[in-house]
C-alpha cells in the first residue's frame, strides 16, 4: 500500500479567475498523510486543509476558509487535477486568494503535476466506499452517491441557451480517461452576467482565452471548444474536484442533475453525517 505525492517542486503563474490579479502558485511534495493543504504566503504562510467541512462559499466556485480570515477560492479545477493524477499528499502555496485559472480547465494543472513527477510513499491509502445511497435535492437540482465498486459519474444539465441545451454524460473514472475525456473541458459563463459579477468583484480574470463565453444563443469563442458536450463534461470535472474534498477517493456512483458546488458540498456533508453511509477501505 502506498500513497502518492509529487517528486519535485514546481510553480506556475497566472491570473485569478475572480480577483483578476496575478497569482504565483507553487506545488511541493508533502509527507504521507498530509493530505492536500493550501498555504497563503501573502498571509504569513498560514495553512488550511482542503476538506469538505472547511467549505464556506459555493456561489461561483468552491471556497475553503478557516473562519478567521484565511480563505482560498476556486479550488475545484486544481482539486480535480490532483484527483485525476491520484495525488494524495501535496502542499499548494499561493501568494493570492485563488489558484491561477490557467486555461480554465483541469488539463493545464495535470500537465504541471506530470512535469513535477510523482513519488510513492510507504503509507496506507484509503478510499471511502459508499454503502447506502445518499441524496440531496434543491428545487429541480439533485446530487446523489450510490453504492458501486468503482468511481462512476453521470451528469445531466439543461440551459435555455441553444448553445448548451440539454446535455448528459456518463463516465467511469481512470486517470487516463480523466486526462482524455474530462480534464480538457473548460469553464463557461454567460456574458449578460459578467457586468454584475465585475461590480461584485468577481469574474475579473475571465477572458475569451480561458472561459467559454455564451452571449444568448451564440458562443463567442467557438475555437476554444474541445467537445460538442463540453459544458456537461466540465460539470463532471467540477464534481470530481468537489468530491476530492472528502480527503480520499470515493468508491461509488455520483449522479448530478443540474447541480453545482453547493449541492456537491451538501452531498459530502450528508454522506459523513451518518457512519452507516460509508466505510473506509484500504486500496492499492
Describe this structure in words.
By secondary structure, the chain is an alpha+beta fold. It folds into 2 domains: 123 residues, 2-Layer Sandwich (Ribosomal Protein S5, domain 2); 158 residues, lpxc deacetylase, domain 1. Helix content is 22%, strand content 35%. The strands form 5 sheets. Strands 11, 12, 13, 14, 15, 19 and 20 form a 7-stranded mixed beta sheet that branches. A hairpin with a 2-residue loop joins strand 17 and strand 18. The longest helix has 14 residues.
- The CATH topology of the largest domain turns out to be lpxc deacetylase, domain 1
Overall body shape: globular
Number of strands: 20
Order of helices and strands: EEEEEEEEHEHEEEEEEHEHEEHEHE
What is the overall number of helices?
A: 6
> Class of the largest domain in CATH?
Alpha Beta
**Class by alpha and beta content:** alpha+beta
- Please give the largest β-sheet: 7 strands, mixed
The proportion of residues in beta strands is: 25-35%
Distance between the first and last residues' Cα: 5 Å
How many domains in all? 2
What number is the mean pLDDT?
Answer: 96
CATH 4th-level superfamily of the largest domain? lpxc deacetylase, domain 2
Helix content: 10-25%
The CATH architecture of the largest domain can be given as 2-Layer Sandwich
Give unreliable regions as ranges: none
- Give the radius of gyration: 18 Å
Oligomer: single chain
Amino acid at each position: 500500500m502506498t500513497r502518492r505525492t509529487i517528486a519535485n517542486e514546481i510553480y506556475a503563474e497566472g491570473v485569478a479567475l475572480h480577483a483578476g490579479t496575478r497569482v504565483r502558485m507553487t506545488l511541493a511534495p508533502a509527507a504521507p498523510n498530509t493530505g492536500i493543504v493550501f498555504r497563503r504566503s501573502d498571509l504569513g504562510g498560514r495553512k488550511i486543509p482542503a476538506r469538505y467541512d472547511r467549505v464556506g462559499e459555493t456561489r461561483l466556485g468552491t471556497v475553503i476558509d478557516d473562519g478567521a480570515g484565511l480563505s482560498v477560492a476556486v479550488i475545484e479545477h486544481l482539486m480535480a487535477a490532483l484527483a485525476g493524477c491520484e495525488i494524495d499528499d501535496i502542499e499548494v502555496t499561493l501568494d493570492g486568494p485563488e489558484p491561477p485559472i490557467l486555461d480554465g480547465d483541469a488539463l493545464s494543472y495535470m500537465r504541471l503535476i506530470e512535469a513535477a513527477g510523482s513519488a510513492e510513499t510507504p503509507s496506507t491509502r484509503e478510499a471511502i466506499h459508499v454503502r447506502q445511497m445518499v441524496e440531496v435535492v434543491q428545487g429541480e437540482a439533485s446530487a446523489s452517491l450510490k453504492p458501486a465498486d468503482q468511481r462512476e459519474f453521470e451528469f445531466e444539465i439543461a440551459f435555455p441557451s441553444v448553445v448548451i441545451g440539454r446535455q448528459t454524460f456518463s463516465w467511469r473514472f481512470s486517470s487516463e480517461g480523466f486526462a482524455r475525456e474530462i480534464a480538457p473541458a473548460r469553464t463557461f459563463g454567460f456574458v449578460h452576467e459578467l457586468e454584475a459579477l465585475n461590480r461584485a468583484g468577481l469574474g475579473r480574470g475571465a477572458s475569451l482565452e480561458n472561459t467559454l463565453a455564451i452571449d444568448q444563443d451564440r458562443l463567442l469563442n467557438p475555437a476554444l471548444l474541445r467537445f460538442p458536450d463540453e459544458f456537461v463534461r466540465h460539470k463532471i470535472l467540477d464534481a470530481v474536484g468537489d468530491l476530492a474534498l472528502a480527503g480520499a477517493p470515493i468508491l461509488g456512483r455520483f449522479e448530478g442533475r443540474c447541480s453545482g458546488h453547493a449541492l456537491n458540498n451538501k452531498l459530502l456533508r450528508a454522506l459523513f453525517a451518518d457512519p452507516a453511509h460509508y466505510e473506509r477501505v484500504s486500496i492499492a
